[in-house]
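Narrative of accomplishments. A recurring question from our advisory board has been how the design workflow behaves on a single, concrete structure rather than in aggregate. To address it, we present the structure tokens for one chain from the evaluation set, followed by the sequence designed for it. No filtering or post-editing was applied between the two.
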């Protein structure tokens, strides 16, 4: 009887261990920030730069964690236009958060004339599947004046 019980317990333990191993292997690896949140920038007109963020499946960017600045005091950020976000309670942040998935286009209005400028964009997002948030991600873009070449 003890032998049967011991064999049964071993088989249950082996099944639990196998299930745990499958669970661990099935958990996706976290993407590097540049893979999770790809971003590009283009000058739309003399006063507007559009940044397009492509967000990997299972990831999101927080609406209120975007910021933008320039390297030229003569050209400043006059405003930022963001589309309506999604909203949900975020366990990692402990509050309701507004966020974007898949793709978001952000329009940055500049003041100070049609000059070449370096635009520095900062954003923060999370891997929603596993509840892991990334540190803020900063990218700098050389934005040419309209009619000029991008540097």
């Amino acid at each position: 009887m003890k032998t049967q019980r011991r064999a049964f317990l071993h088989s249950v333990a082996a099944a639990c261990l196998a299930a745990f191993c499958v669970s661990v292997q099935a958990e996706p690896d976290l993407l590097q920030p540049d893979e999770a949140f790809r971003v590009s920038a283009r000058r739309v007109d003399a006063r507007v730069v559009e940044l397009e963020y492509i967000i990997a499946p299972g990831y999101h960017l927080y609406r209120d964690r975007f910021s933008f600045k320039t390297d030229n005091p003569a050209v400043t950020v006059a405003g930022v236009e963001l589309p309506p976000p999604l909203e949900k309670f975020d366990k990692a942040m402990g509050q309701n958060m507004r966020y974007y998935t898949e793709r978001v286009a952000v329009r940055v209005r500049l003041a100070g004339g049609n000059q070449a400028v370096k635009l520095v964009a900062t954003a923060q997002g999370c891997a929603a599947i596993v509840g892991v948030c990334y540190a803020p991600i900063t990218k700098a873009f050389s934005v040419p004046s309209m009619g000029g070449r991008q540097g």
